[in-house]
Specification:
By secondary structure, the protein is an alpha+beta fold. The chain has a six-stranded antiparallel β-sheet, with helices on one face. Strand 3 and strand 4 form a beta hairpin. It is globular and about 40 Å long. The two termini are 15 Å apart.
């Protein structure tokens, strides 16, 4: 098994929720407690789950208004190829949707999800 760190990132549609309110929604959805830190002017809340870690990144950057984002970001980090697939992506989407957390544009980095049969050729 190859081990690569990959990220599945979602842009969250916040509907004018505060960062604290967004954290509460994510904590309830993923049944975890997020630990929040100021990282270079931006709040980032993280939690380690059984098979992956999650982070919620604030849209406000307190160092400069020019660095602010339009939306919050939700990032899942995986280290096992076992979760680098569309089934895992669907699992995360289902959790978000079932907990009424609106999102758009899921993006895998550093690579797009491809069927396992195509990656092994």
């Amino acid at each position: 098994m190859n081990i690569h760190e990959r990220w599945l990132t979602f842009v969250l549609i916040d509907n004018n929720n505060s960062f604290k309110e967004m954290l509460t929604e994510i904590e309830l959805a993923f049944k975890c407690k997020l630990s929040c830190k100021d990282e270079k002017g931006r709040y980032i809340a993280r939690a380690e789950l059984d098979n992956f870690s999650i982070a919620v990144i604030d849209k406000i950057d307190r160092l400069s208004e020019l660095l602010c984002d339009e939306h919050y970001t939700f990032e899942i980090t995986i280290i096992s190829d076992k979760y680098f697939n569309s089934k895992f992506e669907s699992y995360i989407k289902e959790i978000l949707t079932n907990n009424f957390i609106q999102w758009e544009r899921p993006i895998w980095a550093p690579f797009e999800v491809t069927p396992l049969s195509e990656r092994n050729n």
